[in-house]
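Dear colleague,

Following up on Tuesday's group meeting, I ran the structure prediction for the two-component complex that the binding team flagged. I've pasted the input sequences exactly as they went in, so you can double-check that nothing got truncated or mislabelled along the way. The structure tokens for the whole assembly follow below. Feel free to forward this to whoever is handling the docking comparison.

Inputs:
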Amino acid sequence: IAGITQAPTSQILAAGRRMTLRCTQDMRHNAMYWYRQDLGLGLRLIHYSNTAGTTGKGEVPDGYSVSRANTDDFPLTLASAVPSQTSVYFCASSASGDSDEQFFGPGTRLTVL
Amino acid sequence: GQNIDQPTEMTATEGAIVQINCTYQTSGFNGLFWYQQHAGEAPTFLSYNVLDGLEEKGRFSSFLSRSKGYSYLLLKELQMKDSASYLCANMDSNYQLIWGAGTKLIIKP
């Protein structure tokens, strides 16, 4: 692994189903983030984690949950998907939770029908 | 409230210079970032300004005026590969990035 990876690349999901988007980084970064990107809108922060074992809510956390059991992994779970969660999801990481540049994964394109 | 404004779309000619403006109103300030995003790809870091003035990095430069809540990204000697969206983001007092919607830059030959 080099950098930050996400899986799956894309997914079509029926409304009401549970889904976990995976994110793994090998840079030993402390901070990790989940964003969604919708047409005409800026990236919006869903949840973040400044260090393993801690998480926080971003701008649009409702309907999503995260965990940070270790430094490398930061999965995002949709407990019961709804069509408004159709979006492109990006995971990102930075060395610290301060003013370091964020490195982005390739994204997951999720469609909820 | 928190707000980042940048033009939706700009067109420029190969070899020319283009300036993409960004104005921001956010709670606190911990730096202004510019990212490039090609269609269907992830954003990649271009620049970071925390002090007023111009930061030059090759063909790309970024300017910041904190008193005016204003930044711009200057792209020189435009190449076709510069066709992308350019995202402005302000880091607020909680060290969270507040993103603009992005400026789609179209380069014509």
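The first strand of chain B starts at residue 3 and ends at 5.

Cheers,
M.
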